[in-house]
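Schema walk-through. Below, the input block comes first and the output block second. Nothing else is stored per chain. Lengths vary across the set, and this one has 135 residues.
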Amino acid sequence: MDVSLVTSILAPVLGLLLTGTKSAAQQVGARVGDEVVSLAQQLWARLRPKVEASPAALEAAHDLGENPSDELARGAFEWQLTKIMQHAPELAAELEGILAAGAAGHGILLGERNVSVGRDVSGVIITGDGGSVSG
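--- output ---
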């Protein structure tokens, strides 16, 4: 289970998921996309009981919700998710299924260096570090 990927999806909307207001959902959806909000909601629905059962994980979730771009808050939340996943492998498998289904159903590319193409591609696409094309 890639907890950094789960964190990346949850971070921009975690404050909303913790408070649950509809107007905030619309604002966040406009900023990050309705597909990401939907995927985050599905992930959070499964994670929430485990996070709420751990005071440290809940505090980390609130910290990340208040500061979604803070690397320390992100790291603390990832650490808490890692500990939860170690004790709940069935939950980890369930989250992986949600990620795969959500990505496929909404055309969301998950992971590093992915390229999304809507129609035709001409030329070379390089996603690696220091890549070059000589002709």
